[in-house]
Amino acid sequence: MSTNGSADDRGGRRRHIGRPGWGRLSQRPGLRARVTLMFGLGALVLSVAMGSLAYFTARHYLLSDQENAAKKVAFQSARYVQGALPGNADITGLLESLDAGAGVASHSVLYHNGGWYSSVTSVSQQALSPALKGLVRSGTPATQNFTLNGAPQIAVGVPIPSVKADYFEIFNVSDLAHTLRVLALTLFGAGLITTALGYALGRSASGRSLRPLNSVSRAAMAIAGGNLRTRLPAASDDPDLAGLTLSFNRMVDQLQERIERETRFTSDVSHELRSPLTTLSASVEVLESHRDELSTRDRRALDLLAADLRRFQRMVDELLEISRSDTGSAELWLEDVDADELVRRAVAVSVANLRRPEEAQADGVPTIDVDAVAGVRLRVDKRRFERIMANLLENAYNYGGGATRVTAEPGPVRHGQPTVRVSVEDHGPGLAPGERAKVFERFYRGQAAGRRGTGTGTGLGLALVAEHVRLNGGKVWAEAGDEGGARFVVELPVTTDSEGPRLDEWEPV
Amino acid sequence: MSARILVVEDDERIRSSMRLALEGEGYDVDEAESGEDALDHFSAQSSDVALIDLMLPGMDGFECCRALRRQSAVPIIIVTARTDTHDVVAGLEAGADDYVTKPFVAKELGARIRALLRRARPAEDEPKVLTFGDLELLPDQGVLRRRDGEEIHCTRTEFRLLCELAANPNKVLSREQLLDRVWGYDYFGDGRLVDVHIRRLRTKVEPDPALPRHILTVRGMGYKLVP
Question: What is the pTM of this model?
Fold first, then answer.
């Protein structure tokens, strides 16, 4: 219970730490999108505000200008009417002459002695509002905006009390409306362009300011991928970025130093252990060559010593191998080889090494079926492949009652590259689904049912298989075998280009 | 007469255990605890095979290897605690014929020594003289010389490698075949042995080692000798 509790706590804390950062980022737009959007919105608001201000100011100015001009013309016309009206019988003619002389597009309407007169038949007193008429009748000049036949108009009413007449002049102001429409369209267009420019500016500026972040992210990816030599180039001219670069690089320096120190330690320990191991193994071999002369008790002791010495030796080798993989200092020695021959040879060597003389008859040799990949070329590190097969066979031997069958067959095409699948099957109890990924973990000890002896393995065998397969560009997994045992499958890419690796032109590191 | 092995190793316990194991394999063993000691010893009493540890105090294993190579064609096996490309290749380039890594199995070491001591295989139908370019190889005498009689010094392993190639002119020999025939390794032997020895041979027999005319690399396949 307590272990469960602490695991939950850890999980909970991790989630909590994760949430404000990456958890939410995945749900809302990215920083760049947000900055871009903000710039775009800002430009839009700004252009709407500026555009509206410009439009309404201009409109107000133009309208009052127009009204003043109209009033001026109307007063002039009214004065003329005042002088010309008395005794004039042709009032309509008088109004027509006013229209022609005004110099602007206007029509005149006159109320005189209870009758309405207008310069043109299309414009009559009906267009004028009663309010306007009332105001003028009461002796107050007034204006009225209205629309006539779809065209905007201004009517100016001027009372002429001396001749008992009310003079109205109606101006067609569709020119002004047109001007305002053009202005509005222009401002709208300018607003659109400003918004687009703002969006583009935001995009470019955020891109530029995110560039250091992108390079940090790329560098971090490279480091996570094992390339600890990755550093950010020094941004000397930018004080804002220099700090980031400096602290990032310092962090990687320390990380690298720490990893190197730890690996050096593992590697040093492994190397230092090799000297006493050499003495031990050479001496034990001398004793083993005189095995027959020893008593049964001594022989048993020697066998124990020899067996565990070999195991110890393997452990040191495998630790060293794993520490190399961890630091990315593992060297790959690639050769083009025939898949069938490679598998056959590797199984033969591994089986021979696996069998101690006293166990020679213990298990049948696995059947090897590699004909399906005859002539298929693989580009692999032969030594590593041999280790893969040796460890898989040893695993089958230790935990699966021995390998029953080794098969090599064409696998699926992945990323346009054909593959070969090599599988090792045993007739042990098989692996529970939950165990299948775990067996590749270091020092994982499973159910251990059907296990041969105690402490036969090093605990690193399958972890190294995974490392070797990964370095060779392949995949490995465990699944249920056809006969109830476990099946380990190694999938390796097939060499497709005709250019083989060069033979003697590699560079020593 | 059993072969004399010179063991150059600074760790006294390893030296003693190696002596015991090699004597068990039927060899006579001489010990040297440093490179300088080894050279002194070698000038007084020559050996059939030298085993040189790479990590020696004072003169290191590489230097010892080079110094020994300057005065003799004796087969040299370097003993290293590291399997990094750098050490192995540097050791081979310093003139070693083969290498073993610590901790080694004495039986395996015995097999390596026996392979190095083997003479070039005298095939029945093999001619007495193999020629290519202006060079002559006399397999049964172990002599490589120019037509004008000038002898070219090479180690026993280099000589055997050259014999294998020259006996099969224009035929591609894979790394595995050469490893098997010259060093006695199986399919999983270290191909770097062949590559470094080919490089060393080229510097001796090619007019321009960078542009070889006789010992050619066949990409992805192996090597062949063109007369």
Answer: 0.65
